[in-house]
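Please produce the structure of this protein holding beta-D-galactopyranuronic acid.
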Amino acid sequence: MQYVRSFALSFFFLIVLIRVQAQNAFVANYDESKVLPYTLPDILTTTKKVKVQSKSAWETVRRPEIIKLFEENVYGQMPKSYDRLTYSIKNEIADAMTGKATLKEILIEVVNNNKPVKINLVLFVPKNQKGPVPVFLLINNRGKENTDPTRTRKSDFWPAEMVIDSGYAIAAFHVSDLAPDDTARYVNGVLQLYPEQLTANDGMRAISAWAWGASRVLDYFEKDADIDAKRVALVGHSRGGKASLWAAAEDQRFAMCVSNCSGNTGAALSRRRFGETIRRINTVFPHWFSKNYKRYNDNEESLPVDQHMLLATIAPRPLYATNASKDLWADPTGTFLSLKNAEKVYALYGFTSTLSSNPPAINQPIINSQMGYHMREGEHNLTSYDWGNFIKFANIHLKK
Ligand code: GTR
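Below is the modeled complex.
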């Protein structure tokens, strides 16, 4: 009997092991010829099958419908109300960066349901500019040393001096203030303010929490006389780039959006299943998207949206996406196609796209277009080359 029991137990564990390994044994497709034919949902046809032909039909019917579809099926809800937002300046240095900028370290506290979330914002404001200045805000998903307020450590990930020299303020907050990037600890942050989200199938998870945080920083900017809150360019890299897109979609106060190497469930089309896929992202990062999103594992064709529709909700605001030549995981071609498929919504606003029909060559940025793009030579990263192009893009589209 004992013998039979231990045999049954071993058999059970073997089955569990095989299933776990099958899940982990993900092999990404990097072969363009193996991308199966797919049909994207039409951006300009409503769920009631009505053709959208005007800006007003887009804004009143189709755009809200698409935002709702993303909330329900992908990122989860984005709670808009809270009880209180206060802030305090923890540190202010008038002659930071060898005198060319003012540094402010601000603690933003948001309370809801008697629970607080504290966002630590680092902000440099250029001193040679008159009046409220436009600002680049980074959602920092890497180490905090990348946004060192003392500038002892400098990082290409957030080249603050270069941005200041170009006449913009630069700011950053860290994702861990909103939701630690961890399958268990992500609940310790914004989700405590909205506990009902945890049980809802369309409840918010980490990506929505980070995007929510970006909007709270924007609430703060509206109170800071140094900053022109109508000219905030939101920047995110990779998982942060998924959040920057979602924040700009949900909050139309963001004047410009940059999504750097954001890949799957960022700027790249999901239906191509090139590089990272929905199943893979939901398996390795189950705390990023809503429970409902798991329904689309290996089932992309039944999603009522694809990522070109997310990009389109950012219209008519300037939007810049990037890829890196060695970062096939993030599907550069799928990202470019996503932009191309969003063109018709920008066209409703009178913007004729100057995106080429095929992805541009490496290090050939497309800047003079309401939707910009470049493919940097190199690895998955955010570098000063990327930032240099964000600045050029903002010089055209954001500066007065
Ligand atoms: C990867 C993940 C990507 C991307 C990246 C990053 O592991 O698969 O979706 O977000 O991390 O954030 O650098």
